[in-house]
Design goal:
Mean pLDDT: 94
Helix content: 40-55%
Number of domains: 2
Order of helices and strands: HEHHEHHEEHHEHEHEHEHEHEHEHEHHH
Largest sheet: 6 strands, parallel
CATH topology of the largest domain: Rossmann fold
Distance between the termini: 26 Å
CATH class of the largest domain: Alpha Beta
């Protein structure tokens, strides 16, 4: 997990951390050692109490440093391991004979324009070879599995679905609604919440257009939480151009307890993303009893099932979504809570154990 810089890699960090927590919960037969950047254990003390965590001497913020450490320090550390799990989508050139690779998504194939020339070249070179050399590949959704089979000729018997897991403690320490309303100046407004970094594929601007033209009630507040991405400046400008600055609340990155509280108090979690390898926020909302309005793109219909409003990315298709949600609110909440029971840390860990078995079997055959 040298790629896993705490707080900076988004859902992929939570995905792996929850799997590791699940492994401890089911008392799996695997003795886990986590190799991580400096400071990882302090950010995840509960995980460090469950498994042995060995930290590199570097924070690994620079890709070239991480790659160097993977080929030197890590290669020495894992020499006696029975299986090595690379959770960041890339297998180092010096790979272990039994290797599980987690591929979270392959967005660069669909939207190459969202990547710098340097990173795009790196992914184009490293991802195909990593998938080819891995003993087995873990993916979070059938959508990603199908993409790997179509784009890289990966065989179905090499791929193992490992679902996302939601912790049973999600929302247990959520910040009270009254505190959040006061802190962010929300008053008595109805809240539509979108937790996502401001990257182009997240489609914040789509929601801004809706707020300006269709969702015009003065009682509505659109709350954006998340870091600044490649569309940050464009979003700031668009808010001003549309004249909706008084109805859009930007709060940046938030602590987990605040995020959970904002989800719970919201009329809906709105998620018009055009690309998701999984889409964990919609699952978290369903678990917390908040209805979801999401796009019909990539993995989102697969994750949500019949437990939310799934709509094409067209303004007119979303224009009446809030009215639909009000009419079906209780039903959507019940369906969402029920759907979320299929995605627990324990079930994610059980899937991961199957992936380890697949990698061990394949690695044994390659000897």
């Amino acid at each position: 997990m040298l790629w896993c810089i705490p707080g900076e890699v988004g859902g992929s960090e939570e995905y792996l951390v929850r799997q590791l927590s699940g492994l401890a919960a089911i008392e799996s037969p695997y003795d886990i050692t986590v190799y991580a950047p400096r400071g990882f254990g302090a950010e995840h003390p509960d995980l460090a109490a469950m498994h042995r965590v060995v930290e590199a001497a570097s924070s690994c913020r620079r890709r070239e440093v991480r790659i160097f450490l993977e080929h030197t320090w890590l290669a020495r550390q894992i020499g006696q391991s029975k299986i090595v799990h690379h959770g960041g989508g890339i297998v180092p050139s010096r790979a272990h004979r039994a290797t599980l690779l987690t591929v979270h998504d392959v967005q660069y194939l669909t939207y190459p324009e969202y990547f710098s020339a340097h990173k795009l070249k790196y992914l184009q070179n490293r991802v195909p070879s990593s998938i080819s050399r891995a003993s087995a590949v873990a993916v979070p959704s059938a959508y990603v599995a199908a993409t790997l089979m179509e784009s890289f000729n990966a065989t179905q018997d090499k791929i193992q679905m490992v679902r996302h897991g939601v912790s049973e403690t999600l929302g247990k320490h959520a910040t009270p609604e009254s505190e959040l309303r006061q802190r962010y100046g929300l008053g008595t407004a109805e809240v539509l919440f979108m937790p996502a970094i401001t990257h182009p594929h997240k489609n914040h601007e789509f929601l801004l257009q809706l707020l300006a033209t269709k969702w015009t009630s003065p009682k509505l507040r659109l709350v954006f939480a998340g870091g600044e991405g490649r569309s940050e400046i464009a979003i700031q400008q668009r808010i001003v151009e549309l004249g909706i600055a008084d109805r859009v609340v930007r709060i940046g990155r938030v602590a987990p307890n605040d995020r959970d509280g904002l989800i719970k108090m919201s009329l809906a979690l709105v998620f018009p993303s055009s690309y998701e390898g999984f889409g964990a926020p919609v699952l978290e909302a369903m678990k917390l009893g908040t209805p979801v309005i999401a796009s019909d793109q990539t993995s989102l219909p697969e994750v949500i099932g019949n437990a939310g409003l799934i709509l094409p990315l067209e303004i007119e298709a979303w224009s009446g979504a809030i009215d639909q949600l009000r009419q079906r609110r209780n039903d959507l909440i019940e369906r969402g809570i029920r759907r979320a029971t299929e995605f627990t840390e324990v079930k994610s860990a059980e899937d991961l154990c199957l992936a380890y078995e697949r990698a061990l079997s394949s690695g044994s055959n390659q000897r």
